[in-house]
Every structure is written in C-alpha cells, then in structure tokens.
Specification:
With 478 residues, the protein is α/β, with parallel strands linked by helices. Strands 1, 2, 3, 4, 5, 16, 17, 18 and 19 form a nine-stranded mixed beta sheet that branches. Strands 6-9-10-11-12-13-14-15 form an eight-stranded parallel beta sheet. Helix 2 packs parallel to helix 3 and helix 7 runs parallel beside helix 8. The two termini are 30 Å apart. The protein binds N-(aminocarbonyl)-beta-alanine (URP) and zinc ion (2 copies).
C-alpha cells in the first residue's frame, strides 16, 4: 500500500492537488488529507508533479533488422523505460515475410514474459498477406489479445508489403475494428534514390536523409491515406518527421479519414546536421524517416501544442555505434559477425534506429515544457493518455483516476543533470543525446503500485511487468 501526499496531479485534461492512495495495484482513492491505512508507505510529493505512467507507443526491443539484432532485451529495455518514467511499452512485433504470424507473436511475447519490468503489449506486424493471413490475424486479435496492426510501406524486400496486401490488411482491420499503424515512405523511390546516390560515390551517413527526402515520406502518407479512405480503416502514422507529411494527413482528415499522427523524440530534439558529424559519428543519427532540418522539428512542436500531432513515441531501435552501425562504414565496413570486410560500405547498410526509450519524457519536459513549447497537460496527453485511448488501454492506463492501475511518476521539476552513455540503462554503447543538459527527472516510478525507481535510482528486481491483454470492447477508446 502506498499513500502519496500533497500531490500536484497532472492529467491530460486538468491539474489538481490531493493525496493518492494505491492498494492492490490500483488507485483506490484520491482526495484531500487522506489518512494512511496501517502498513502503508507514505511518500511526500510536495513540490513535485505527479503524472500517470508514461506510455511509449512505438518501441523495438527484439528486432531482427538489416542483418543484425537490436541491442536491448526486455531486462535492459524495460529498466531504461522505467528510469525515464515510461511504465508501458507497445512494441512492434516484426516477423520476417516468410514467418508464421501466430508463431511470431508468441516469440515476441516470450522475449518479454517474466523479464519485462514494465507492462507491455504489441502491434502485430503484417509483413505478408496471403490466403492464411486473415484467419491468423483474426486469431491474434481474439486469442492473443492484440488489437492493433503494423504495416511498413518502406523496407522493400524485408518488412515492406505490396499494395494489394496493404488493401487486404486495411480491409480486414476495418472489419475487425483494429487500428493499423504504418511506416510511410515510398519504398521504390527510396531504393532508386539510394542506388543513384551510391553510384555517385555519395556513401557517408550524411546521404541517408537525401536518399529519403520529404516528398518520399509525404508520398507514403498520401498512399496510406488513399487506402484508408477507400477501405474506411482507422490508421496511425508512426514516426512522422516533416511538414509535408503532416500536411498530407491533415488533408485526409478533412476528407473524413481517421488518421492519428505520431512523432518521435529524435525529430523534436535533433536535426539533420547531426548526420553530418565527422568520423562516421553521423551514423549514430541514422533512422528512417530521417531526422530533418530544424524547421520541421519546430513545426512538430507547434503541432503537438495545437493537437494536430497526437502522440510522441521514441521508435527506440538500439544499435551499437562501434560495431553494428559500422556495417555501413564507407571505407571499411563490418559484416554481420562484426568482422571487417576490408571493403567499402555505404549508408544503406547502417542499421536504422536511435536508442531513446529512456530519454523521451526528460527531453519533452526540458525542450518542451521548460522552453514553453508545450504545457504540462500536453506532455501528459501526447506521452501517455492519447496512446492509451487510441490503443484500447484507457482508463486502465494513461490517467490518474480511481480504479486505474497505480502506474505513477513523481517528477522532480528542479532536478538538473546531463544525459550520458556512462549513466544510461540502455544496452547501447552510445547516447544520441550525449552531454545534453536536462531539467527534471522521474524521481519515483511505480508499476501497479510497486516502486521500481526511488530517488532516481533503480530498485526493481526484474520481471514485474505484465502483458496487457487488449480486447475490441475494452472501452474508453478516445
Ligand atoms: O530507423 C528506424 N525507424 N528503425 C526502426 C525500424 C522502423 O522503421 O521503425
Ligand atoms: Zn518505421
Ligand atoms: Zn519503428
């Protein structure tokens, strides 16, 4: 039992003051001057913000990708999430095209079960659609508790699907009422532009962004919007990076398409100049869609403040700099065993992704709230509540209310420090935000009432997390 006294409770719609009593994993009472029941631990939150546990709607923990595997497992990934105030992860289950979808979701679940310290669920990746797929996906919804899909319009030859498959996936999603999350880039345009640049000898990480220009992402979004309009499916565009992509989706909304927009922490807090750092350092910042020029990040902040952009995830996709990113070194690339090939590589071989699950809320608070770009309600809305509502977790998650899970973040707004690989909990050998000054941190974090982080330090033991079974009638959607 836990009693949090003198809390400034920040929900997405309002802030209030009071005490919060947590019993049996739930918030059982909120009110002024609550008395501590016998045996309750009492925590004084005077001067702190008390937020609902944050939800990251887009992470990769187990990710076989570009000839290697992402670096975190659920032990490190969930610890890092919690250290940053994120209490629920929604991971992309990304089977290879030839894999059986039901086996894939069981494999992904097995990576988390008994290991994750935070709660978790998955978006089911649809990387092929053939005669058996509809039946398999229906079973995944009803028998595996998964109510959102993921499609890739990018990554031709890997996770990417063809247009007929996209149409069938969205039609099925409409029939089942599930949300389809989508990576939107035109795969053929990416492939052709990559070939052209490499043939011209443009092989360093700084050429990653030009190989996937704004128009290629906007075309991907337009493509998805057309299919969503025809099928009536509800869609959610992941990692939206730029002005033209947002504009295309906003236009589709005016035509009646239900389309949610996610952006991710790196697009708000980094810019394309990072990929130009010398000595191959730019490889640390290679992700897709690429990190854009600063004006796009500024625009995304405005869209968060006015509600055009609905959620902020991370697209946490951790790869080591000294080894894995070097698979695309332009002079001497490493192979899949991380051995030198003695040959020239290029940016198309750099595993795409940036580790950031630990830093998202700190960055949003420092760069967003403290700089006056967003208010506290917007922080909670875009980093917790909206994801809970879109993906059928609300009001169990995403709000501090009686009956909700006692996932609570006590946030110290006065703390200041620096981000560093030396102190982070993620498994990667670098931080994309090394040396960044941070204001505010998660001082105490609970998952269903159990304290996982205390005084900013890890006190979890591992495996406390639960799989969040979602159903189509879990209610509270939006
Ligand atoms: O660069 C990225 N985004 N890597 C992870 C895979 C994906 O596209 O989400
Ligand atoms: Zn993606
Ligand atoms: Zn992703």
């Amino acid at each position: 039992m836990l009693l949090i006294k003198n809390a400034t409770i920040v929900n997405a719609d309002a802030a209030s003051t009071g005490d919060i009593l947590c019993q049996d994993g739930l918030i059982s009472e909120i009110g002024p001057n609550l008395a501590a029941p016998p045996g309750a631990e009492v925590i004084d939150a005077t001067g702190k913000y008390v937020f609902p546990g944050f939800i990251d709607p887009h992470v990769h923990i187990y990710l076989p990708f570009m000839g290697t595997f992402s670096k975190d497992d659920y032990a490190t990934g969930s610890k890092a999430a919690l250290m940053g105030g994120t209490t629920t992860l929604i991971e992309m289950c990304c089977p290879a095209r030839g894999d059986d979808p039901r086996e894939a979701i069981r494999l992904w679940k097995s990576k988390a079960e008994g290991i994750s310290s935070c709660d978790y669920t998955f978006h089911m990746g649809v990387t092929r659609f053939d005669e058996g797929t509809a039946e398999a996906l229906k079973a995944i919804v009803s028998e595996e508790g998964i109510t959102s899909f993921k499609v890739f319009l990018a990554y031709k030859g890997a996770f990417g699907i063809e247009d007929a498959e996209l149409y069938q996936t969205l039609s099925l999603a409409k029939e089942l009422g599930v949300v389809v999350t989508a990576h939107c880039e035109n795969a053929d345009l990416v492939a052709e532009t990559q070939k052209k640049l490499v043939a011209e000898g443009k092989t360093g990480p700084e050429w990653h962004e030009p190989s996937r220009p704004l128009s290629v992402e906007a075309e991907g979004c337009h493509h998805l919007m057309t299919f969503a309009e025809l099928t009536g499916a509800e869609v959610y565009v992941v990692h939206t990076s730029c002005i033209p992509a947002v504009e295309v989706i906003v236009e589709a909304r005016k035509r009646g398409v239900t389309a949610w927009i996610e952006t991710v922490a790196p697009y708000l807090t980094l810019d394309s100049s990072y990929a130009e750092l010398p000595d191959f350092e730019g490889a640390k910042y290679v992700m897709s869609p690429p990190i854009r020029a600063k004006e796009h990040g500024d625009f995304l902040w405005k869209c968060l403040a006015d509600g055009t952009v609905n959620t902020v995830g991370t697209d946490h996709a951790p790869f080591d700099f000294k080894t894995q990113k070097r698979m695309g070194h332009p002079e001497n690339a490493l192979d899949a065993n991380m051995q030198p090939t003695g040959k020239a590589g290029n940016f198309t071989l750099i595993p795409n992704g940036i580790p950031s699950v630990e830093e998202r809320v700190k960055l949003l608070f420092t760069e967003g709230v403290k700089r006056g770009r967003i208010d506290l309600q917007t922080l909670v809305r875009c980093a917790s509540t909206q994801a809970a509502k879109i993906f059928g977790l609300y009001p169990r998650k995403g709000v501090i209310a009686v009956g909700s899970d006692a996932d609570i973040v006590i946030w110290d707004p006065e703390w200041s420090g620096k981000i560093s690989v030396a102190t982070h909990s993620m498994a990667t050998d670098y931080s994309a935000f090394e040396g960044r000054e941070i204001q505010g941190r998660a001082e105490l974090v609970t998952v269903r009432g159990k304290i996982m982080v205390r005084d900013g330090k890890w006190v979890g033991s591992g495996g406390e997390g639960e799989f969040l079974w979602r159903t189509m009638d879990c209610g509270g959607k939006r």
